[in-house]
Amino acid sequence: MQQSHAEKAIASLKSNSARLASRLQENLAEHSRDIALLDTFSATGSSAAKYLDSGVPPPIEETKKLLSSRRESERIDGLKRVVAMMLKPHPVSVFFPLVTSLLTPTTSLPTRSLISLYILHVAHTDPSLALLAINAYQKDLSDPSPFVRAGAIKTLARMNLPDIRPLVNVSVDKAARDGSWYVRRAACDAVRTMWSADPDPEHRPQLEKTIDVLLKGAGPLTVGAALAAWEEVCPQQWDLIHPNYRAWCGILGDMEEWGQCTVLRVLGRYVRLFCRDPAEAGLDKDQELLLDSSEMLLGSLNEAVVVAAAKLHFYLGTPTHLAKIAKPLIRILHTSTSPEVRASILENCLIVAERHPELLSPHIVTFYIKASTPLLTKRTQLKILVALTTTSNVRPLLKEYLVYVKDTDEEFSNDAIAAIGTCAKRVPAVADECVSTLLQLVKGKHDSVLAQAIVVLRTLLTSPSSASSRAPIASTLVQLLDTGRIRSPTAKSNIYWLLGQYCDQGKILEQCVPDAVRVGARNFAEEADETKLQLLTMSAKALVVSHLSTMTPHLRHLSLLFNYLTTLARYDLAYQVRDRARFLAGLLQSAGIGSTPGGDTARLGMDEEDFKSGVEVEVALKKSGEEDDQLLRAEQVRRILFDGKAEATVIADRSTDEELGTFLIALGTNAPRLSFTDPLPPYATSIPPSSIRDAISSSGTPSKLPQEIRSASSRPMTGFGNTTPPVGGSGRASPIVLVPTNLASADSSRSASPFVTGGGRGRGGFVDLEDFYADGSSEEDGEDGESDESEVEGEEGEETGEEDGEEEDEDSEEDESDDGSEEDESGTVRAS
Questions:
Q1: Which residues lie below 8 Å from residue 679, measured CB to CB, with a gap of 6+?
Q2: pLDDT per position as a tens digit, 411-437
Q3: pLDDT, tens digit (0-9, with 9 covering 90-100), for 36-61
Q4: How many CB atoms lie within 10 A of CB 562?
Q5: Spatial separation of the C-alpha atoms in residues 23 and 18, rounded to whole Å
Q6: What are phi and psi of 830, to 5 degrees?
Q7: Which secondary-structure segment (H or E) carries 82?
Q8: Which class for 247: exposed (0-12), middle (13-18), buried (19 or more C-beta within 10 A)?
Q9: Could you please report the per-residue DSSP string of 605-648?
């Protein structure tokens, strides 16, 4: 008997445990569906991601059942299915009645986001059907929650339906006057959306009125979005900016980070148009206000804010302001972990180094290159080092460049060799040392290093100061050609160009050119096209110079070599080589170049008939008694071949329109430019009076700038992302004193402060905390007595003020300050 009872108890316990496990599994599945944890416990789970992975749409009836469910999680799951079907794309119009029925005052924000995605999709595919959802969003415009009102504004603006354009205009205009900063920010985004969707000039006046309202009521959290809308819709309406300029300078430190970037960009353009150049007339007061207010932003933790503030000081400031931008940029290079941010900051540093190298010269060690640095970053840092090269640091930099030449990347190695040549140009005192270094590189084993070193040597030898060293260097290069150590086509073509261009100077023609032509003619058919072209040109130049010279020991040899080369070029596969040979032969033949002083004639080239018939060189040379008419003089031929030849450049000059503070400098010159990335305009020659920037009061008359805004530059301000003290601050923050001892100064400072309302002694005159709390308890007792005396009066006026109180409560629910307070879904206000 006892055994049967024990068995029943055990069976009951097993049954209860199984039911409990089943219930726990159901609850776990219910709460983990949104975060896709169900697939961990079951291979047949239904996470939202599987609808995007599968090409088969989920069953329609099952989706409808989920949409009409009473459970919030199942309705969200149904909406996810609809969105997945929408993205495939599959037809989803059949779900419209069920989806729109979910828009109720109690709908959660995640659900509203999914519904908005669906409605926007329907608005683009079936506009007439989407009009049926307008009613629900109109009701949301009056919802107590600012998040719901903001979502409704964004959805209506993105629907882009011409039939509801007037309704959307009215709704956006109403949202621009909303008491919540979040809704006003959504109104700014809605204005930009409406203009980008339909940029018709007829809609501009209405949008300008809305932007005017947004700018006048803009606070620290909305001014950036309002100015972004102004930039896109009416960037030339500066009348909207005038009365707000000084106020925005005063709250610059309290704005959110991306709003600070927008404000700095707009106010920088504003100063260029409405203030004089400080180099001519000194700093304007309003210009100085902007620079001083933005100085604290150089210590921001946001890299974009630092660059925007540095740009403002770079283009608008005096040399005193310029000196403040170097350390913030270096700080970002040391602290940033993002390669993209570092690349952008380095491009900005390059602009600073090229225009004001004295700012970054003390930090030159920061730009030394490590082996693990990415290639693009290496090249930018090398350009910065070249820009910072001076007489005092050129020798340490040359040692750095020699290390960089050994880099495994060919492009960076070539850039390092070019940097050596740039040092020789910038600091003539080390030119001989740089040339010796390049000659050592020419004798190396790597073809790419050798070719780049010859290109740099060619660039250096084109300068007039290098005339005396051309002959020895040319002789060395010809020797390397003869021994076969130079195999690069680029190197050979540069050597031939150098010999041909300067064969009339020094002893290059006598000692170097004949051997170079002979070496080149030996393997002419196997050379690259660029080498063949330069070899033909060099041979023609040498022949012209030899013809004009009084001493012509090599004239006949050069004539024979030129004929030999032109004959080989006639059968070349490249049409450029054939054309060059035909042009040079005809040019020299028209001037009668090739006759020796003794009367013996080495007939240059061949006439057209011989060239077409394929007559050999020997046969053409034996022709006699036929002299063509001389069409050109030898001096004219010389000018054609020698004058106006372009010189090689070591490092290409940067574009002059590149501007500090834009990411476009890292993308290249072919990157698309937006309206707000245009370069800063020049300073205006004639400017209006500064009274246009006086704030307009409610009565319509200009009001002076408040004292707390005028002194914004003298007091430390902190805002979003500004956790560091202002750069160049004069002192530490004042300590917090819990027990003041100087009562007279405390009372006077409290009474003089514009931020403290009310008078009286308050609690600032107590020496210790015991008196402070004792007085507080006595005040509470006095307040209780006063409340007893006024209780009868309160009962008499209760009935008369009941209706007014209800109206005030309704109004107070809508009023929200612009100081960063937020409201959650339940309507509870919480300070951020």
A1: 657, 659
A2: 999 999 999 999 998 898 898 899 999
A3: 433 433 333 445 566 666 666 778 88
A4: 26
A5: 9
A6: -135, 140
A7: helix 72-87
A8: middle
A9: S--HHHHHHT--HHHHHH--S------S-HHHHHHHHHTTPPPP
637 confidence band (pLDDT: 50, 70, 90): confident
How do residues 344-354 score in pLDDT, each as one tens digit? Answer: 899 999 999 99
Picking from 342, 304, 309, 344, the residue whose alpha carbon sits closest to that of residue 324 is 309
Compute how many other C-beta atoms are within 10 angstroms of the C-beta atom of residue 509. Answer: 23
Our CA angle for 117, 123, 126, nearest 5°, is 125
CA 474 to chain centre: 46
Pairing of strands 702-703, 822-823: unpaired
What is the Cα–Cα distance from 63 to 395, expressed in whole angstroms?
Answer: 75
Which uninterrupted H or E stretch holds 401?
helix 394-405
Look up residue 5 and give its two tokens: 């009872």
Per this entry, what is the length of the chain?
832
Phi and psi torsions of 721, nearest 5°: 85, -5
Q: Assess whether the previous peptide bond of 89 is cis (omega < 30° from 0).
A: yes
Largest CA distance in the chain: 146
H/E element, 491: helix 489-501
- In the block, tokens 């057209």 appear at 608
The mean pLDDT value of the chain amounts to 77
The CA-CA-CA angle for residues 761, 765, 771, to 5°, reads 115
User: Token pair of 364, please?
Assistant: 């030159």
Whole-number Å distance between alpha carbons of 429 and 394: 10
Q: Which helix (H) or strand (E) holds 793?
A: helix 791-796
DSSP string covering 688-712: --GGGGSEE-TTSSEEPPPHHHHTG
Return d(Cα 583, Cα 588) in angstroms, integer.
9
Could you give the dihedral angle defined by the CA atoms of residues 591, 501, 528 and 448, in that order, rounded to the nearest 10 degrees? Answer: 180
> What number of other Cβ atoms are within 10 A of residue 613's Cβ?
9
The backbone torsions φ and ψ at residue 725, rounded to the nearest 5 degrees and listed phi first, read: -70, 160
Q: Which residues contact 505 (CB under 8 A, 6 or more apart)?
A: 467, 470, 471
Instruction: Pick the more confident residue, 32 or 526.
Output: 526
Side chain identity at residue 749, one-letter code: S
Per-residue DSSP letters for 171-192? HHHHHHT-S-HHHHHHHHHHHH
Distance CA 205, CA 556 (A): 84
Residues 719-755 pLDDT 10s: 434 444 444 443 343 443 333 444 344 344 433 333 3
Among 748, 749, 751, 754, which Cα is nearest to 706's? 754
Residue 79: which H helix or E strand, with range? Answer: helix 72-87
Query: What's the Cα-to-Cα distance from 762 to each of 629, 758, 770, 777, 782, rounded to whole Å?
Result: 114, 9, 15, 14, 15
Backbone angles phi, psi at 328, to 5 degrees: -60, -40
- DSSP letters, 571-607, are T-S-HHHHHHHHHHHHHHHHTTTTB-TTS-B---S--
